[in-house]
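It is time I had a proper look at our fold encoding. Can you supply me with one protein entry, sequence and fold together? It will help me judge whether the discrete encoding reads sensibly. Leave the record below and I will have a look:
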Amino acid sequence: MNYETRLINGFRVFGFETSESLIEYIKKSPSILIAANGEKIYSQNTELKNISLTNVGYADGIGAVVALRKKGLKGAVRIPGSELWLKLISTLHYDHSFYLIGSTTEVINEVVKLLRLQFPKIKILGYRNGYLSNDEDEMLLEDEIQKMKPDVILVAQGSPRQELLMQRLQRSHEAIYMGLGGSFDVYTGATKRAPKIFRDFGLEWFYRLLSQPSRLRRYKVLLPFAVNVIRGKY
């Protein structure tokens, strides 16, 4: 199996050829799973990039796939995080325990309800919304994680906030961590995912832009990112 990595603008990304190989790797080497896309790679967030150096960035966006292939990892494929977290649960839920953090109280309650219906044998040790307002909230969460010792911790807060929280929790409790962004909202139907034709061509970002024009400011980085990838600058 191919577990090679490449640095793309200081962000370490694994060139996994299948989601199954990613899951196999993370089972043996518990760490933080970070969805790598153009926005994160192009950003100047050194904290996020430093976290990627000692954890597992994977190609969530098509731009990351193109960059990996230009750097010699021809078999690298796109692994959408919005699908990966459910594959992770499907594979591990028979013998791993889970803790979930993210979204609103209403949404997280619905997520837990749906997961227990979809995976009757799943062991969810605890869950809470993603609104941690201060250091005291994070300390209380850290204490709870240390006591419960879940095997897998899923955090849906948005980046880089979720990665910083997972790094903090990781320091006191080793586990498989995965940042999910808005995946809980998509799973419950609170947010609509892009149609399959957009997903197949790696254009989920474009669909989200059409649906939410306010995201234009965030996506302005995609053009210079694409230019840098094409020129081999990364």
Q: What stands out?
A: The chain has two domains: 1-79+192-234, 84-173+181-187.
